[in-house]
Structures are given as C-alpha cells and as structure tokens.
Design brief:
9 helices, 37% helix
Length: 261
C-alpha cells in the first residue's frame, strides 16, 4: 500500500493529499478528474522503477483550499510550492487529461522542475474543427463511451459501478460533483487558458501517449501537441481516453522506456 500523507503550503491554506510508493528517481503523477481512485495499477507498475508521488488536486477528497486559489496560474504556483515542500527540485512529471495540462503548465512556467514530461491525452489546446468532448457536462450514458474504448470491459464497468449502500453511493455522487466543479474552475473554458502561448518554454524531453481510439480528446490534438512542443515523441497505444487504465502495462512500459532512453 502506498504511503498516505498530507502536505501543507501557504500556512495551511492549501493542503495536498499525496500517495507515495516505490524507489528510484522521483516521478510525480497528476491525475485526471475522471479517475475514481487516487492510486491505480498503472502507478503500482511505475513504482517498480521510480519513487512515485500522486497528489490529489485541491477540491478532490483529501486536498483542500480550492476556494483560496484564483485560477490555473494560481494552481500552477501552488504545485510549485508543493514540490518545494516535498524537497523535489526536479522530477519526472506525468499527467493524464487535465493532469497532463497541469504537468505541461508546470514544465512551461518552471522549466527546471521537469526532468522529463509525459502527457497522456492532455487537455489544454483547442481546435474549432475538432472540439474535445465536454466531459464536464456529458450524462453518464454518454460519458462512459467517450472515455473508454470498450465501455463493456471489466475495468470500465468497475469504474461505472457505484457502491451498493445508499450512504456510500451518495458519497460517491457528491465526490463526483466536487471533482467536476474543481475541474471547471481551472479548465473551463479550455480555449481561453492560453497554454499554447507557453508550450515553447518546455525544454524537458517530452513523450505524448494517446489511445488510438480516443473519442474524448481526438487524435488531431496529438499532432497539435507534437507540433508545439519541441522534440516531443508520440506513442499510440490500443485504447481510448482512459488508456492508462485500459492497458496499464503498455502505458507504464512506454514511460519507463522513454525515461530510460
């Protein structure tokens, strides 16, 4: 089981719940808002090669202080302070969807923080001719097909299944609302965030990972990111937007090989 602790910044005004496990060079993972758990088999696999730190974004269960953060820039600054509090001057940064957007922001605003950068179907760019799915407002019967290549697969069904008891089910619904509200504060509307103006600042070796059947964040964005991040490598894996959960072995192996190279 990963170590579970709380890291405070700004005199306790903002706290991050962070799970950590493994040995080796530090790797920080920034999660998607549509992950149900703070730790996953994908992170277990990475922890075989790295010291993995997985913070929860403010507003997600265990992390607090979202009301004190003004916008995406403020969250980026907060994560810089979080890394400082952990004593991580430099780390491999990995992020999925909004987490990928967050990792890219950190690598652009604080280039020295990123030893390498792995972005798994990151949000943050926009094309009117190929809009990303608005996963904040999709009803549940449309959200699962947008996120998963095969919504009938075991991992997708497990993700979609609410707890049996009324109390636990209600708590899960409340947390889902909190997650979407937190994402909306920092990511919506995506076209206005200006990330494309900062991507040229990224100097870390960068890997883009994409599911070849991603319906939430179309493959055209993989090309867009590769064009805007100098030297970025692109790797397509079988799966949808949640590819790191659909094929965790392939995703983790791709990252280990990339960093090792």
């Amino acid at each position: 089981m990963p170590d579970d602790r709380t890291v405070e910044i700004r005199g306790g005004a903002v706290t991050f719940r962070v799970l950590a496990a493994g040995r080796g060079a530090p790797l920080v993972y920034f999660h998607s808002y549509h992950e149900r758990s703070a730790w996953s088999p994908f992170l277990d696999l990475l922890a075989r090669s790295f010291s993995v730190y997985a913070p929860s974004h403010p507003g997600v269960t265990g992390s607090t202080g979202i009301e004190t953060l003004d916008d995406l820039l403020d969250l980026t600054l907060a994560y810089d302070e979080f890394l400082q509090a952990l004593g991580l001057e430099r780390a491999h940064l990995v992020g999925h969807a909004f987490g990928g957007m967050m990792a890219a922001e950190i690598a652009a605003v604080f280039p020295a923080r990123a030893g390498s950068l792995t972005l798994i179907s990151p949000l943050g760019l926009w094309r009117d001719d190929a809009p990303s799915a608005d996963v904040l407002i999709l009803p549940s019967d449309e959200l699962a097909p947008a996120l998963w290549h095969d919504p009938a697969s075991g991992v997708a069904r497990q993700w979609a299944t609410l707890p049996v008891s009324d109390q636990e089910s209600l708590a899960a619904e409340v947390e889902s609302i909190q997650r979407r509200s937190s994402m909306a504060k920092f990511a919506w509307p995506i076209p206005d965030k200006g990330l494309k103006k900062r991507l040229h600042r990224i100097g870390a070796p960068t890997l883009l990972l994409w599911g070849d059947a991603d319906r939430a964040n179309p493959l055209v964005y993989a090309d867009e990111w590769q064009r805007r991040v100098k030297g970025a490598a692109l790797r397509l894996l079988p799966g949808g937007h949640m590819v790191l959960h659909e094929t965790p072995e392939s995703a983790a192996r791709a990252i280990v090989e990339f960093i090792g190279a």
